[in-house]
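---------- Forwarded message ----------

FYI, see the PEGA domain-containing protein record below. Original note from H. follows.
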Amino acid sequence: MIIAIGTPIGCAQAPVKLEYRPSAGMTKPHQYASSLRFGVVLFKDDRASTLMTGDRQYIGWGTNTYRTDSDVDLHVTKAFVDQFNYLGLKSTLIHHPPADFSFQTNGWVQTLRSRFPNVDVFIVGRIMNYQFQSSHTGYIEGTGSAISKDQVELDVYFINAQTGHPIWGTRIHERSMTKSQHSKPLEVAAERLDRDLQKVILGYADRSVGHLAKVFPGSIQVEASANPATVSGKTLSADQYNLQKNPIPAGKGRLVVTTTPSGAKVYIDNVFYGVTPMMLDLDPGVHLLKVKMNQYHTSRDKIGILGGTMTPWQEDLQKKF
């Protein structure tokens, strides 16, 4: 979250104060248990305003441009580190990239590895957009409802610290528009901006764990407390199956995994979630399910999860002879 006090560049007032809070939005701590250590290299500020002016403290666009109290690249990178640590993913901020750092080569990985020998995964990224715009609906400036438009776009990659090979990476973009009667519209716009930043960072955490688990088997698991619907190793009650009493969160689908016998380990996209019987909410799409139990054959399946829908999966495990 940001608390902002600011005016357009050129006005002699306090700059926008940037203050990210990883606990905002009722985000739960310790959602992951992992032995991996992440080194987050200071992100490159590739916003258009920075490329044109060379100033990393501008925020906004057009006539709605403000100066902040810190460099945006440091603020965004530190937010990434703080959020990962809050989630249970041990991370360190690397303030100074190597002199030979480049997104096109990986020779710099060896340099960083010598400086940070305990790091398993280096995270590098570019800030493509981190801006807000604040305006009003009235014909006279400063009248009517306040409207804030915010957008955050990061390009982030996870690099194997031992090999220098990329593990996974993508670009994630969030934008929003908020209308309010708040007396301090800049604070509304700034708070919304870092909520969007949080959504982007949480997206990287959620989407990277499966890729990380493939490269580092057994190194990461999702804690049951991170998923309010998760039930692991206990008999599922009728109320838990009742979607009115136990609704599926917006943007999620529900998977129910049961086995005979119960107590089998459940892996989703190579990440351990718990033991059967199990109920949990997942992002819609195709997921790789693996069910393992000592003295029984391992079962594997591809499961299609639909938003707002409960998907059951049941298996009679075959005993090894």
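H. also flagged this: Residues 1-12 have pLDDT under 50 and may be disordered.
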